[in-house]
Request: fold
Amino acid sequence: MKQFLWIALVLLLAGCSADHSAKEPFPVEQDYEFDPSLVEALQIDQIQKLYSSRNKLVFYFVTTYEQAAFLKRNAAYLALRTVPDGYELSNMKLTLLDRFEMGGGVYYGMKIQLNGTGLEWLDVPELFTSVELFIAQQPLFQMEVGTVAFREDGVAHVDQFSMEQLKPIVQMLHERQK
Reply:
């Protein structure tokens, strides 16, 4: 009976360690042909106060199904920097939003959310309108995101976004692919 319990324990531990290793990030796909022309951002002006304890920035964009899948698979290797300053914004989270189908094409809305403290974002530019996404330190694409400003008279982040705002962007990307 003891031998049976030991075998069960070893199998359980082996299963747990195998499951854990499956959660490791994929290696960066060096040979994928990412097309920056198939990415379009929703431009939202954000005028915020930079707080010492918590700050949040959110950017929305649309891309094709294939490129969205590539970005999700390689999310662990992505970094977002302001243009032209090159300031890297910390604690990035990439989220798939709604799926849009149009004329045989499949597109996904995506959200980039950044969280940081005032100390982490101490040197963030006071004003920027573009960001650039990098993968493994190599530039992937740049997007115009609207005016992002940090000022004393700014407010805490208020996310007033609806999926309806992405539909014209999907239409524009679909026309670009024709």
